[in-house]
Amino acid sequence: MTSPDNIRVGVLGARGRMGAQAVQAVEGAEGMEVVAKLDAGDALSGLVDAKAGVVIDFTHPDAVMDNLRFVVENGISAVVGTTGFTEERLARVREWLSGKPETGVLIAPNFALGAVLAMRFAAQAARFYESAEIIELHHNRKADAPSGTAAHTARMVAEARRSAGLRPGADATTSEVDGARGASVDDVRVHSVRLPGLVAHEEILFGGQGETLTIRHDSIDRVSFMPGVLLGVREVRRRPGLTVGLENVLDL
Amino acid sequence: MTSPDNIRVGVLGARGRMGAQAVQAVEGAEGMEVVAKLDAGDALSGLVDAKAGVVIDFTHPDAVMDNLRFVVENGISAVVGTTGFTEERLARVREWLSGKPETGVLIAPNFALGAVLAMRFAAQAARFYESAEIIELHHNRKADAPSGTAAHTARMVAEARRSAGLRPGADATTSEVDGARGASVDDVRVHSVRLPGLVAHEEILFGGQGETLTIRHDSIDRVSFMPGVLLGVREVRRRPGLTVGLENVLDL
Amino acid sequence: MTSPDNIRVGVLGARGRMGAQAVQAVEGAEGMEVVAKLDAGDALSGLVDAKAGVVIDFTHPDAVMDNLRFVVENGISAVVGTTGFTEERLARVREWLSGKPETGVLIAPNFALGAVLAMRFAAQAARFYESAEIIELHHNRKADAPSGTAAHTARMVAEARRSAGLRPGADATTSEVDGARGASVDDVRVHSVRLPGLVAHEEILFGGQGETLTIRHDSIDRVSFMPGVLLGVREVRRRPGLTVGLENVLDL
Amino acid sequence: MTSPDNIRVGVLGARGRMGAQAVQAVEGAEGMEVVAKLDAGDALSGLVDAKAGVVIDFTHPDAVMDNLRFVVENGISAVVGTTGFTEERLARVREWLSGKPETGVLIAPNFALGAVLAMRFAAQAARFYESAEIIELHHNRKADAPSGTAAHTARMVAEARRSAGLRPGADATTSEVDGARGASVDDVRVHSVRLPGLVAHEEILFGGQGETLTIRHDSIDRVSFMPGVLLGVREVRRRPGLTVGLENVLDL
Predict the structure, then answer these.
(1) First CA to last CA across chain C, in angstroms?
(2) Dihydrodipicolinate reductase N-terminal domain location, by residue (chains A, B, C, D) (predicted)?
């Protein structure tokens, strides 16, 4: 809906799979509107002409750095779902932002609120339990096992456990058929199930005396990324500088 | 294990079901030891003689107020699992504590860390989702439905939703067999399953576009309360005054 | 794939949502091919011209009886997903089939193999357990609670329990917030959860001393009906007469 | 309860963990009574003196063959939970029984009805799905991974798949952290989770187009074996000869 109070949003990669969904999501959301839809070949100056306040970038690792330099120079904040950010790239973005106290950039590898919340809660719960394991379940066309999200969760859980002085969970297994106990990611066991009929699911299990705590996220459609993107659009202008990870704008 | 650095713990209600478990738990824990085991009829002065620094109270609503007045007056901190605390009772405890800047009292209706974490995470997740429902599952000897924990969780979720300006989740049901949609607790639907072979289980489900987040706690033994009690013993002396609810000593 | 040995399949309602999926499924399957695609307004004689051996009917209650009379008269077998079959309608189909020892009709309210298997297993398990309850979970645009499948499952479980001489499961609930214990369908409790992000899920729980058995079916796409339709196409010609329910061609 | 119509039950290994539970279970059941409780050192002739009709044997691999020879010679049927039966041992029991048309022996590695039903349903469902995997979850004091029950289930599922002409489920994994995809038992993937707070749980997952079917068994107490033992006592006299596996007396 058009309104002078709306956040004016430009979408980069607007004809791509995620970009097209972002356009649709912004158009359906309150308090914001799409003012520019650009894709490969379009001039970035269109963002300035359209007076965009925030851009959403779902483009390509080859394009995203040029996009970010341009928008930061022009005082436009950015919500970025494009992948391929190294420490070196993040450092450059920080440098560009250093002279722009009113411009923010949010770069997030995962915009699914549920996945981000699950990871955060897992990290919070980790220090209260003797042991933790992860089961992730995906469709059987997936190439990597475990999933990036599950591996990342495992490392967050492991880090929280170490900070609390916990050693790896006790495991009395003495006879194992190879692989039964899953992959060890930073001393946290991760099990990867692959079946047709599944989409993307993750379960983090914690065990203590007489009880277990389980945090589970089920995602069945990439539309599930959009509430996180919209939240990013709303929050990024209030957070100058670089923010990495959606969890850092959730105010948990 | 005995050590001059140990927290010296007195257990009130030491022959009761929970008290006996608390004795055992303290004896098995690092950094603390049991110095007094009292039950109905024993003189509270035994706590002072034993130089107890913290008492654990699993007694009875009829006894707990006298116990608390005594221990606070003697500068002994307390971890209390006894039930029956009204606002009026809490106010009296606060008053006793007002002149004792080094004495703390922790009163908690639920010492199961997993249940407390599940509630906390549910309250944190609530504002990010269009809708939430609760399923709690217990053995079929339970008299009340929903369980106290599930009803409490529902109210916490409802409160978090209201604070975020969310209205009750949309529900298109127009034809319902009576009871199918569960109980409405503060506009959050709660479903109570009762079966032999279950113990105590709670599942909080959140739904948004294309995704769900589920937080589940399974408790199969009351030994699951003990890590929470021990955590309380460690934390209560660092927190003068009255603390209600284990969640408030978890530093989440 | 075309082959002289293929089952020659005609699809009625071929432009409808389910019919179109059926066309695609048959075209992708081994041992069968689509020889006729008809929709409202097309002459049924096209089925005879195309030498169809089996028709799939996803049409409308107003059309299906005329369709069935025609195909049975012409010795064509039928797999029917159209709804609206009363006992009276079934009797008429049986009558038409009585003179056709080589023609079969399979009418099924549910072609999802998983749902049919879940119901069958639930009926088999029922007599071994003291108590059973059902949780069904659907998206929050659904109008009826409980779902037809869950209500049907409840009645099958109840019937199996009665046949085994079991009384309704014990329930000690004395204090209930209205609706907490779910709907009573034939003395089996059914709980209906409604959330965005869900599609169609059913869980049948059985409880006995120290153990529970859970049978769960998750359906996230109506493509899940197609393996059941294809199975029907393969089986219907070997089963003259009327068969009601996919479970009766599964040879369990 | 005592009654002339009762099945007269002798318990061997009556002071052992399982035997003692069996005594208690028979005493609480309708239609049967305990007439002899024997343990190591007691004369087997006590069974004849007590006119036992059925014995329950939870003893030891070293003792069970002598026990069985004695009871079969005396026309007493037997329900056996003792382990260690090889093909050679089973052949000897069959031979002893060959001259006893009214005596039956039931030997079962698992008396948990739910575990047996779960395996049976899994074997029945297997041929309808493209792919199947198993997750088993146990307390972290367990020495072997996967559990014997899960490995046995995997082989049953694999056998059912082969009989139906199915090849191993498709798996697009090209990049795997060692162990992530679990153990391969007869081409079925099995994942073993080990956590304190768990007891014994097994989940068999089947995946097809747009749907999954899950069969789950949770056991939290060895009392869960007793309904299976009692069912065995009731059924064994009606089944002369040797029966191996509780599933074969369930009449599914």
Answers:
(1) 30
(2) 7-111
